UniProtKB/TrEMBL annotation:
Lineage: Bacteria, Pseudomonadati, Pseudomonadota, Alphaproteobacteria, Rhodospirillales
Protein's organism: Elstera litoralis
One annotated GO molecular function: malate dehydrogenase (decarboxylating) (NADP+) activity
Name assigned to this protein: Malic enzyme
Malic enzyme N-terminal domain segment(s): 42-175
Family assignment from sequence similarity: Belongs to the malic enzymes family.
SMART domains xrefs: malic (SM01274)
Renumbered residue ranges of the record's region Disordered: 1-31
Pfam families the record matches: malic (PF00390)
EC number: 1.1.1.40
Keywords linked to the UniProt accession: Metal-binding, Oxidoreductase
InterPro entries in the cross-refs: Aminoacid_DH-like_N_sf, Malate_Decarboxylase, Malic_enzyme_CS, Malic_N_dom, Malic_N_dom_sf, Malic_OxRdtase, NAD(P)-bd_dom_sf
Keyword Hydrolase listed: no
Database matches in PROSITE patterns: MALIC_ENZYMES (PS00331)
Amino acid sequence: MKGASAVNAAPQNREETRDMTTPQQKKVTDAEALSMHASGRPGKIEITPTKPLVTQRDLSLAYSPGVAAPCLEIFKSPDTAYDYTAKGNLVAVISNGTAVLGLGDLGALASKPVMEGKAVLFKRFADIDGIDIEVDTRDVDEFVNAVRYLGPTFGGINLEDIKAPECFIIEQRLRELMDIPVFHDDQHGTAIVAAAGLINALDITGRSLKDIKMV
């Protein structure tokens, strides 16, 4: 099964690495956070082209009549969508805002800064393009139906900040209905981090998993 690619986007220099790993010495204030989000173009993400769009010919290739050729190729062979479109490197960050970080049920609209933030993390650390989608419903069936038909657009689905137990039901049903990867961040992401920490601890201490007791 094809899905979203993971391109390494390591920091470009040591200075950048140092800045990312140095603990914050100063607490982030509400005023500072609001100023950051509102400065310049509001929000944290934008869409930029990956091909030159300078001349009329560039535009003709990118749109009409140039798009006809890849459209027909994808119609004949759907997998070529990964060759001719951004699908393979595009992830939907989707939430209904019912369990936003430590803030609780804020609703779809108020969860948007978090979803934009997760899209930024995808881009910063893996060069994966993320688009945030806030679905304004608390009904499981409505949410599943809203997301399931997005499959042709994206290479993967990242479910975020959806309250339990609905989050488990939604994730399972979408995995059954969609032919692209569906990842529930609060469930699988937490498990991956915990497992990685355990593996690293075993490696550092020179022990084997079968020799330890986990509490």
